[in-house]
Amino acid sequence: MSATQPTPRGSHCGRTLVIATHTFTQLARMKVFYFLAIFAVIIIASNFLDWQQLQGPEAAGANALASIKSSSFGTMHLFSVVLSIVATALLLPKDVEDRTLYTILAKPVPRLDYLAGKLLGVLLLVFVSLALMDVLMTVVLQIRTSMIMEQQTELAQAAGYTPDAIASLRAETMANGPNASLQGAVLAVFLRSSIIASLALLISTFSTSTLFTTVISSLVYFIGHFQADARDFYLRIGQAGQGGFSRAVSLLVSLVLPDFQLFNVIDAVIEGQAMPMLILGKLALIAIYYALFFTLASWFIFSDKEF
Amino acid sequence: MPEAAPAVEIRDLVKDFKTSFRRQRLRAVDGVSIRILAGEVYGLIGPNGSGKSTTMKALLGLVVPTAGSCAIFGKDSLKVDSRDDVGFLPENPYFYKHLSGAETLRFYGKLCGLGGCQLRDRVDELLALVDLEGARDRRLGGYSKGMLQRIGLAQALIQEPRLVILDEPTAGVDPVGSRQIRDLILRLRERGITVFLCSHLLEQVQEVCDRVGIIFQGRMIREGRLDDLIAIEDQTEIVLRDASPELIARITSLVAGVPGTDLVRTGKPRTTLERLFLREIREEER
């Protein structure tokens, strides 16, 4: 053993990154990426839906591509939500149960670094998974778009379409293929995951079991889809009575409980609409706000927790 | 020159836990004070549930004292920087099973701010110290209990701490593994590292500790230097090798002729079952 000498403590960022990369490795070694194989099967299977037998050349392109996008985003949605909740809910209780948390907190590791590292690790895994799924979806869409455009041209020519009409049809199909809006929508899926994961982190700091965290996080996610409607309804009642108080309560609810309806823009992108940068920027700010809010609330609870 | 701060300073520590039933308070530690100087090996002994682990957790800031204070080298235990100079091995540690021995040490080293060649050398050095070089790339899921305890001890030493806290370091380990861990503790003492360990294996504590404290139902009932505590003041031991029966008879008659002195017993000293076990194992290995 070498002589005792002062050891550098490292920075907050350094420690957080160490815990994040370790959490990523831990989850990856749980064979989470096997899910990508299922994703690939779903995407390939969605190619076999033969829309052109059912409708004319206009609908054939849009529907076939929408089918691929819809199944891809459906799987991305499911994967990101399940992973964000379950992985986050699993990590903290497991460390406490296995007493690995003792050995980590017995090192010069502030509890905020530990929490932030765990959250970042889960988000890193979700990000990498979504990025891989995005690449796969984009490649399949690109190939399928080219094939569809050729088929459409043949069908349109057989049906006696003018060259202008055929060009317009091709442009419409191109708009349903891979584009920047689609990448924006994948980013929106990730932003939604970051809110859900940080919410699950908060619940796991006071929860007594993984099951409790999973159930409550799923419930809050579900409620988040009706939050905006409930607030509108409440405000309408408030206008008849104490308007100021109702608005204050409504504001408080929206500060604490995320409105997941805002992410419905993803559905519009699947249908071929563009994703404005302004909307994406707004979603990013909302996600950062809730992720920070929930992480700081987690720290507030976790800092006084005894083991 | 000001006196150097003790490695451990626990003053009038009280820790109450709320039980879920009727929210009644349970006093786990009741007014415990411990002072361990740098370089000492201190053993805290007591039966299960006597407050040993809670005392250690309070020292590491894992639980907040209800009253009293804990400090490590003069730094308040509730502050993160007090952990700069501490290594901790919990009772029955289960590290991340997906990591290998070397990866485990690298992970804990990075948490302490180590990196590059310094970390690589330290990992190699510690794997050699705990005799796990052959299992460095094996995942911890395949480690035996004794190997887990040794890798646990290595992670506790990763940042070269001046104080090592060991909670039941040989719990569930076979005699060979237990001996290896004891030898490691003795090597730490030789290097001037302070060791604070708790155990209910009294013979083990007796072999390695300079001072001991006996804790029972949350209270410190006896504390002091081991030699002082276990010596029987009114008796003297003489151990002879190859003594003839005639010599024994002469000594016995000599003692009988001195008023006020009694011969308590004569006979052959016995080895311990553990020493016998280890000797037989070693002979079999040869």
Short description:
Chain A is an all-alpha fold and 307 residues long. Chain A has one domain (12-302).
Q: Spans of chain B of 5+ residues with little confidence (pLDDT < 50)?
A: none
Shape of chain A: globular
**DSSP summary: helix tally of chain A:** 12
Amount of helix of chain A: over 70%
* Topology of chain B as a string of helices (H) and strands (E): EEEHEEEHHHEHEHEEHHH
Mean pLDDT reading of chain B: 87
Q: Give the CATH architecture of the largest domain in chain B.
A: 3-Layer(aba) Sandwich
Q: Please summarize the sheet with the most strands of chain B.
A: 6 strands, mixed
Classify the beta-strand content of chain A into a percent band: under 5%
Strand order of the largest sheet of chain B: 6-7-8-3-9-10
Strand content of chain B: 15-25%
Please write the CATH class name of the largest domain in chain B. Alpha Beta
Q: Tell me, rounded to a whole number, the average pLDDT of chain A.
A: 84
For the largest interface, the chains and their residue counts are: A-B, 33 and 45 residues
Task: Characterise the protein shown here.
The complex is a heterodimer of chains A (about 300) and B (about 290). Chain A has helices at about 10-30, 35-45, 55-95, 100-105, 110-160, 165-175, 180-205, 210-225, 225-240, 245-255, 265-270, 275-300. Chain A is mainly alpha-helical. By secondary structure, chain B is an alpha/beta fold. Chain B folds into 2 domains: about 10-230, P-loop containing nucleotide triphosphate hydrolases (Rossmann fold, 3-Layer(aba) Sandwich); about 245-285, no CATH class. Chain B contains 9 helices and 10 strands. In chain B, helix 2 packs across helix 3 (about 115-130). The longest helix of chain B is centred in the middle third of the chain and has 16 residues, at about 175-190. Chain B is globular and about 70 Å long. At the A-B interface, helix 1 and helix 4 of A face strand 6, helix 2, helix 3 and helix 4 of B.
